# Entry
Amino acid sequence: MFEVKTGSKVCMNASCGSTSTVEWKKGWPLRSGSLADLCFRCGSAYETSLFCETFHLEQSGWRDCYLCNKRLHCGCIASKLMVEFMDYGGVGCTSCTNCHQLNLNKRGENPVVFSRLAMNSPHTNGESGISIRSEADLFSQPLVNGDDKREEFMAHRGFANFMKPDNNTNNNNAGEMHEPSQPSLNVALATLPYSPSFANPVGGNKLMAAASQSHSHIGQCSASSILQKPSKSVPGTPPGTSKSAQARIGRPPVEGRGKGHLLPRYWPKYTDKELQQISGNLNLNIVPLFEKTLSASDAGRIGRLVLPKACAEAYFPPISQSEGIPLKIQDVRGKEWTFQFRFWPNNNSRMYVLEGVTPCIQSMMLQAGDTVTFSRVDPGGKLIMGARKAAYTVDMQGCGLTNGTSNEDTSSSGVTENPTSINASSQIPEELKGVPEHLSSPYGVGSSLKKSEMNGGRICDDPSRVKDKKRTRTIGAKNKRLLLRSEEVRVTWEEAQELLRPSPNAKPTVVVVEDHEFEEFDEPPVFGKRTILTSKPSGEQERWASCDDCTKWRRLPVDALLPAKWTCSDNVWDVNRCSCSAPEESLKDLENVLRAGKEYKKRRIQAAKTEEEPSGLDALASAASAAVLGDALGGDSEVATTTRHPRHRVGCSCIVCIQPPSGKGRHKPTCGCTVCSTVKRRFKTLMMRRKKKQLERDEIAAAAEAYEEHNNKEATERGETDENNGEKEGRIDLNSDPYNREDVEAEKEDTKGRECSGVADEVLGLTELGGEAASCEELKAAT
DNA sequence: ATATTGCATGATTGG
DNA sequence: CAATCATGCAATATA
# Structure
């Protein structure tokens, strides 16, 4: 039932300090991208997101109920339930019993929002009751006492009270008990497709009014209550993904010029809290206009940000000339940027772009997948540009790519804020100074968590998920390139798991639930030191670690687990080398260690990319990238860099690019690595194609007897040509179609570009199909 | 040789 | 199926 992982995680951001209060329980179902993608305390959204799943801390003590404004406190039932049952979502505030909001997301593909609201709650517009949005979720079926393992588990965990709302001592609102007999989880299963509060679309003006007034009645009029119900689940703004009042929900923006309605994907998405705070703290209205998730080209060096046409035409000044106009937009720091707002004719339409955005994008430290928001200050109409960082998420199940491109915001920055920038900012304009410095919303964090992270991979079969996947494919595939670099320098989630150790003094309490042993630790986990495992030729394994003081490598027992800081003096296993003054191991042994370390890094890159890129070609591209990058990760590459033809770019999956760095030697015929298997597969495909074509030709030949002789002759000649090309020898360039003259020509050009600078060696070194390695002369001759 | 610009193309998506 | 938009790419400009 539960995915048994190693344990909880802590924020690795040294300045965060959120480690001490993190509850550590081995066996919890943990996954990246869950409820707490970012550390809400330090606001580390992107780089540390993988380590900030401080569930317990996050859910308890720091989140305000949006109705009663009370803070959840550590140890409350809700928070524990939230933690324990991440798979199923969580509950809202238990401080007030007016608001129990569940967001159940067990399978992810069908996020559910349960709301149990007071009879007189403004959320219900006077309609009492419970709303549920979803079709198929475990919790979308009534939970009957005693018939569900969940109850057993929760009861075991001491949540029986929660399971039985009637026992809730703080039940002061009869109205909420829409269905008194409803047994558990306080969820009455009305089948309303949407909460009534979501059901009535309202115009933008109303949004404005609500936003501007909300500060005066926080808790009475949540911004969500004036949300328009999206017509469909929208990536990034699926209504069901809202975790709470702080869910990031797309709001139809104010009406602009033009008629076309804005696609929900461009709806500005702010949490209620953000809206409330922003509106409440400012004396002026910030009107969210739209937002856009940066594509690779938006964030690239080209400096052009493609604007959604409808947005550009609705909210930016009208332009008639293609050259457009300079447009001043202020960022959160108060810096005013001037972009060229222009368009290109495109088909019979226009394509709007902001030119010259690179400095701004860089200044905000944005990259593809992040979101830029555009707002307007009213009155005055000044344009404000904000940003929200995307979360990096890892699809632990390898089910599909999860990229940070949709709206896995981890660092919400309100309308115009980027936490990092605003925190660092000392020049916030007067008009923006009222904006809370840090509007990171713990719930916003997980509110749109990627579905695949939530369901353990089961969603692969789900059509909606497939569609979702499809929808994000473009940007995902492109963003992978961009994510790559950050990936290289980051410890992956799984690796972090490996590094987690129970606190040295912690004694686990073992409980068994549903045949799963849960080790519970009172102490938070600690990060251990990374070690390297090597194998001797004899097969015997050794573990190595480098001293934090002298950096010398020391041999350790295989099962050694080191604390984060480890020095020679801690080397209790080797009395001869328990001091930094002791010499290092023999050079030969150390070489093994270093090699193992490099291979480890390489595996990391490849594994990470393979995980992200399930398709064969993409996997190839990953391998290619790794090969191209070599061991640059560690900066200690011993691979000579060669100049490749520009055609061989990162992501290229051609035979050249999928090589390991040169000098690594030829792969063995039995090698089953990605590259070799791909080469084999390609070769096989190629040969099949050839065979097929040959068959076709033969048929034609048979039908046209008059040409038979001619054809046979041609085939013979072709065979010779192939031989000349070395294919018969197995030296194939699998990028080229032997029957495609253009391809051949292109390859010739390509070969020229390579100038035999080692790349050719790589090609041939790799191709285990190939017998002899061709010399540069041979290749030149081929051109 | 590299960067920039303007346009074209094609994948994706909403209606 | 048409609109949209991400991105490729050729032409042009600049270093």
